[in-house]
Structures are given as C-alpha cells and as structure tokens.
Amino acid sequence: MCCGEKADARRAAGDGGAFQEHHRFSQRRACRLVQRHRATIRYHARPAAQDGVRERLRALAAERPRFGYRRLAVLLRRELGAVNHKRVYRLYRQEGLAVRRRQQADRLAARPVSAAPQRAGEQWAMDFTQDVLANGRAFRTLHIVDLCTRECLAIEVDTSLPGARVARVLDRLCERHGRPTTIRVDNGPEFAGQVLDAWAYQHGCDWTSSSRGGRCRTATWSASTASSATSASTSTGSSASPRAAAHRGLAGR
After folding, report:
1. Residue-number span of the structural domain to which 64 is assigned
2. Does any domain span residue 104?
3. Kindly report the CA angle at 99 between 97 and 102, in degrees rounded to 5?
C-alpha cells in the first residue's frame, strides 16, 4: 500500500466523515469529536515524480550488477542531487532488482581493451601482493605503476593496507606527479570499497577494472612487482620464506 492509500484509509477510519454524513455535522465539529486537525483531514498526498530516478536506477543497476541499493544510492546522489536512500530502496524492490551472483562465465568474459597510454602520467595501474615472512607474519605490498613509462611510482608495505591508506598514497602521488586520467585495477575486493570509489569521483579519475591477463598483467608489470616484493621483504629485517623468494602468485596470480 502506498502513502496515498494509507492516508485515505486513515481518513476513512477516523476523519469524522460518518458524523458529517449521518448527523450532518460541520467539518469543524466532526474534527473536534474525533480529535483530528482539519489540516490533516484536508491533506492529499502529492507524490514526487519517480520516473527519472527509476529509469536511472535501472540503468545503473545494469552497469554495476554487483552494486546493492546503498552503492547505487551514492551514484544517484552524484547525478541527481539529494535522493533519500529509503526512496532508492523502495524503487529497488519495486523493480525487482538484486545483486547478481557472479557466474563463471562472467569471470572469464573478455573485457574491452582500453587504448594504450600516449604520455607519462596518463594511466596508472595498482595491485596488491601478499606473502608470509619466515617468522609466519603476513605482509602486503601495494604497487602503483605508470603504464606508459613502466615506472613504479610507489610501493607501500604493511601488514594491513585499508582503503584510507591507499587514498593517502594516491594523494601524495598526485601532488608529486599530477592527477592521472585513468587508474586501472583488478577485480579483487581490495579496490571495491566506498573510500576509493569516492576518491576517484572527487578527483575525476576513471576507475576501470582490467581482466585477467590484461594490460596490468604484462611481463614488465609482473617482473617489477616480483622484484619489488623481494626488496620489501629484505627491508623488513626478516628473511622471506621460500614461497616469497619464488614469488609465487606475484607474477601469475
């Protein structure tokens, strides 16, 4: 039942209409008997137009099948201004939308290959690597590479690298090298957070995902990340495990 139907039901139940019809009371007297304000009885809902929000919600859900209604509400606010998340949820349910489960065919589907960068600083690529030291402690490394010059712009090493930490690294690189046009990442959950999505929107960067074996997985990228992981392991003061020395998963993950 929509808001207008609920209001009509409430008015029919206790708006004093029976007193006016059967006892010929005035509206003022009938409202006094049922203890209702006259403005409440006279009010008629004026629902806002939902067509524009509904159509855009369907389009965004088709473009981002892995986004729920909360993430879609963020995208709608960026385009349409103030949109209540409860309104988005109601339209989301009415349209029968849901987060689509990832199928094997979707994982292996070929993605369109973007144009090669023509100048330094135009496209960056980011990826995480993970391994374990000889003492059993796990560590992660974040690698950011310029796809035109193949220069490794930054290597961040720590036991935990949340989205806020990655955003700070990107801010530092933008101050030093300028803002890139495109940042390419893989399909991992590390880059699917709201912090990095908001950072890309605020800085006007195109946040694109690369397919398995794409441009981010070239031999140059694999060799640079593997050698970087070796230097990071040595700089921690502990010898890396044989698995880290062999760089398993860094070059062919």
Report:
1. 51-94
2. no
3. 135
